[in-house]
Specification:
Elements (H helix, E strand, L loop, with lengths): L11 E3 H8 L3 H9 L7 E4 L2 E5 H17 L1
Antiparallel strand pairs: 1-3, 2-3
């Protein structure tokens, strides 16, 4: 299986974009993140967080590989 690459010039994704891409709610993403099972967010300000596109791509590719190995 070929690794998925997001075709976008963005370097970062906001919370809504990440939730839409991985198809999880924001609260579930936070629970996974707190358990060390999701890429860590980057805080840009008091109410602004983002994730690196490359971190999300890698996480999705890892999940796809795990599914194939099951």
């Amino acid at each position: 299986m070929e690794d998925m690459k997001i075709k976008t010039p963005l370097l970062f994704l906001n919370k809504k974009e990440v939730a839409g891409l991985v198809r999880y709610s924001c609260s579930h993403i936070q629970r996974l993140e707190n358990r060390g099972k999701f890429p860590r967010r980057i805080r840009l300000g008091p109410s602004k967080v983002v994730w690196k596109v490359t971190d999300i791509e890698q996480w999705l590719n890892d999940k796809a590989r795990q599914g194939l190995d099951s």
